[in-house]
Fold this protein.
Amino acid sequence: MSDKHHGGHPHRSQRGPRKPRDGGGGGRGGGRRGGGPSSGGGKGFKSAGRAEPVPADLPETKFAEFDLAPNLEAGIAAAGYIEPSPIQAGMIPLVLEEKNVVGRAQTGTGKTAAFLIPLLGLLEPVEDAAEDPDASPTGPVRILIVAPTRELAIQIAKESDKLTRFVPVRTVCCYGGTSIDDQVKALRDCMVVAGTPGRLLDLIRRGHLDLGSLDAIVLDEVDRMYDLGFRDDVDRILAAGKSRQQTILTSATLNDDVENLIAKHMGEHERVIMEAKSLTVDAIDQTFYFVDPRRKQDLLIEVLKSLKPAKGIVFVRTRFSVDRITYQLQQRGMGAELIHSGLPQRKRERILELFREGKFPLLIATDVAARGLDIDDITHVVNFDIPNHAEDYVHRVGRTARMGKEGAAVTFVTIDDGPYLTQVEKLINKEIRQEMYPGFELEKPEPAAKKEAKKQKRPPGLPPWANVARRR
Ligand SMILES: Nc1ncnc2c1ncn2[C@@H]1O[C@H](COP(=O)(O)OP(=O)(O)OP(=O)(O)O)[C@@H](O)[C@H]1O
Ligand SMILES: [Mg+2]
């Protein structure tokens, strides 16, 4: 381990005694292997790992204030990040101090780099990269990032790869639907792993992913990670990585599940909560249409024809409806493709890649695309079905208007959906504006006199549409 120190910030190896490390210690003395080529497109993701030479003409950045290793700072500058976003300014110093951190900030505000930059900054090979430009990437795994979907795990791995361009650190992405053997091989010389819970557990159980030398576990989209579907897996992963020194949780929404997780697994921690008037980004123009459920599909076509999204995502509740709606839009030549968990993994990645490249304008998706995905210049989000959980609304509409950009979100609300709309407005602390589309104005469900009579019977606390809703 090196005791070199470039500036004011001491890295992990200089923080007094650390637990002994298996298999390679701090990474400098362990068995080194050559860096392999990157692979991608449905075959998993593994970064090359070897450090590129730092170009001379990189811009100065305000990340200098964190005293990061020069080659990491170069990676930040090469990524085009000049100024830390508020959540980055809040989280980076605390993570560098090896604190446990819970971070909440609106969608698209840079939470990924808020945990990646400081965690990478604490790795010795990052620190030493400027002096040893030919070093090969080594293990053991030191940083584990867990995300709820495969595509998000891949995106996080790519962000790590971008930031580690000038340091000999390899990132590997481990997720289901792809060859486990490729991932096992790649894991040998890597320090950063991003993945989804199922595949990570599989690798841990089979003895291929050793978390004995782990520095930190990050749970991105933590409220989703600790809901019923993933809770047991996450508990097991956290138990397997119990020798870690840091736990980091991030999301745009936190809830009681997260509080339970904190109580169970975290101990002392710092919270970095970026308070704002609303949970959603101001730059999203949010509207809704009341619509007869039988006319939703027609309204979708009309709305899309009039909005002409350059790049839009339409969120739909079920895979079956995603298939049906995509087919209908394709029949009309509207440039729609679909993504949901029923597609082969290769196809999921391919579709997303083409959408990122702007090869078609409309992606029809289930909530598999709701969380964390950072796709350039999404202009519109349409909630064909309003989500059942208000948090999902925040994440879905957050696919647009990222990092200071603008966007619009349109939600279809049927008469049965009234309570969901109320929940969303309550959660985001904002009233969503109603729009009418000519020819689709919702007719009054019954004559006023009859309605008045029913109103008398409405139990207190229910919204005006409650009686009507039950009648349907
Ligand atoms: N300091 C920065 N300056 C400029 N751009 C940045 C900076 N940090 C991150 N970005 C870019 O901002 C975008 C959004 O970042 P990111 O995906 O991390 O947001 P997020 O807060 O995790 O959003 P979500 O809640 O939707 O997951 C990305 O394209 C990222 O490359
Ligand atoms: Mg994110």
Summary: Residues 150-163 form the longest helix (14 residues). The two ends are 69 Å apart (CA to CA). The chain has a mean pLDDT of 88. Residues 23 and 401 are 44 Å apart (CA to CA).
